[in-house]
Specification:
mainly beta; 276 residues; 11-stranded mixed β-sheet
């Protein structure tokens, strides 16, 4: 089991951690700053190296009013065989007024006979800004099969809190169960093996932005579609979903989309995390 709590607040133009707690197989490295914007970057680490059967990971992150956080992982999240019970991660994210969170983990790799469930609950204010990226990759299997894992379930629920008036903005549910059929076929992964997702919530999200991101995606070896949420309580969201046969190609696409938003909305350069 692993448990992590992290609270970020704004202090004199810089975002700093005002509360940290960890127990078990989760840690964060010392926070650092990639530029002069005041945004703090924390790297999430699993010293155990992988998720195994019946593992439970609890992550609670709060970004206070006006604070800015970039949260990433040190390496790929690896799900190994989970005989008897699935591995699970539960993440709660809370964003205050005018706050910003960029969630940019390395890819999720599910190996043979792996079963994994990920539940992410987000509560934000109408003025909050959220960018979440995710890439799912099938792991190596000794028999050469592409989809050797048992199940991947990723559920993301995003709610807007406007002075006590709380509403559901988006509910995104990805469920892949290879033993039940050919997930690479028509109407599912369409012959591809890798799945990338980008979720953006910000009051500046609109159809013009969705069209621009869709046009940007045409320059990559990936099959991409976008959906807009209905505007709710002063904000809106979009989901970009992309299929490919390459982790790197999906990462390049998601980084390019995030870079466009970083430049336009925040005046920041594209991310260059250089972890290896």
């Amino acid at each position: 089991m692993g448990e992590l709590e992290l609270t970020i607040a704004e202090r004199a133009g810089r975002s700093v951690a005002v509360h940290q707690y960890h127990r078990g197989a989760l840690r964060v490295l010392r926070g650092h700053y990639l530029d002069d914007s005041g945004q703090v970057c924390y790297v999430l680490v699993n010293p155990g190296g992988a998720y195994l059967g019946a593992d439970l990971y609890l992550i609670d992150v709060e970004v206070g009013e006006g604070a800015k956080l970039l949260l990433t992982t040190q390496s790929a999240t690896k799900i190994y065989r989970t005989p008897g019970s699935f591995a699970e991660q539960r993440m709660h994210l809370r964003l205050g007024e005018g706050s910003r969170l960029e969630l940019a983990p390395e890819q999720l790799i599910a190996y043979r006979e792996a079963s994994y469930r990920q539940n992410t609950h987000v509560t934000l204010r109408p003025s909050s800004s959220l960018i979440m990226a995710e890439v799912i990759t099938p792991g190596w299997s000794p028999d050469g099969s592409q989809f050797g894992y048992e199940e991947l379930g990723l559920r993301t629920e995003i709610r807007v809190d406007a002075d006590g008036d709380t509403g559901l903005l988006a509910l995104d549910n990805v469920l892949i169960r290879p033993p039940l059929g050919d997930v690479s076929g028509m109407a599912f992964l369409e012959g591809f093996s890798h799945l990338g997702s980008l979720i953006v919530v910000d009051p500046r999200v609109d159809q013009a932005l969705a069209d621009e991101l869709h046009a940007l995606s045409a320059g990559y070896d990936a099959y991409t579609g976008l959906s807009l949420t209905a505007a709710r309580l002063g904000t809106a969201g979009l989901v970009l979903r992309s299929l490919s046969n390459s982790t790197e190609e999906l990462n390049r696409l998601l980084r390019a989309a995030a870079a466009l938003l970083r430049r336009r909305w925040y005046g920041q350069e594209p991310l260059n995390l250089r972890k290896y």
